Amino acid sequence: MPSEPAPLAGRRALVTAASRGIGRATAALLARRGATVFITGTGEQTAPTAAELGAAGHAIADFTTPGAGTAAVAAARETLGGLDILVVNTGGPKPSTFAALGDDDWTKAYHLILGSALELTRAALPSMVERGSGRVVYLTSTAGVVKPLPGLHLSNVMRAGVAALAQSLVGEYGPHGVTFNTIATGPVATDRRHQIMAFQAGQHNVSAADWEQRESDQIPMRRLGSPEEIAGLVGYLASDEAGFTTGATHVIDGGLTCT
Question: What is the reported pLDDT for 216?
Fold first, then answer.
């Protein structure tokens, strides 16, 4: 008896910021499930990561630069011949007190998070509408999407905008078979999370290790999440089984916001 085909066989996926962390775990999972994957990253690790993942291609994309999102989709579509799955993922802006943030900080944060989401989505939708189906998944944070978090003003504001974008598009593109979902992650063991915890530890005059332990103790699961656990939900939202799931914000934080 022939084996059952991979659930994402024939699908073409763009995963941004995929050279490490959640983006890399997501690209790896989509590839294992049969999708042809194109990734972006910001540095020299992008090319070897693409090779390790067996990606069809890659592009260097600094989303703080206007136009980078549009160019990334164009590169992916040229390589893949179209686009069925878009996973919008970016690094986070710096944690800071509000008083220390200047206009340039806000402008860069806009382009990095909300501006890039707008560009990537606008460029990807025509291919999905033409096919009559598509999956758009926005990887965000509980910061701003669920509730504002201290010291994360840039993330609080911009990521809330991304979640609003997802909900805004549901009615217009649902008839074309395109779904939009937001994943709001809590404490996940990534370089970004360690940067935030180091900032917060400094604000409270404790060591980074002590702060991480304190944060873990507040999570009902008593640990940080893993990138692979986030990727698992992306894989579901990218599948046919999730065709009736749209406009939702999915919180993965080990139960932290329930306590």
Answer: 79
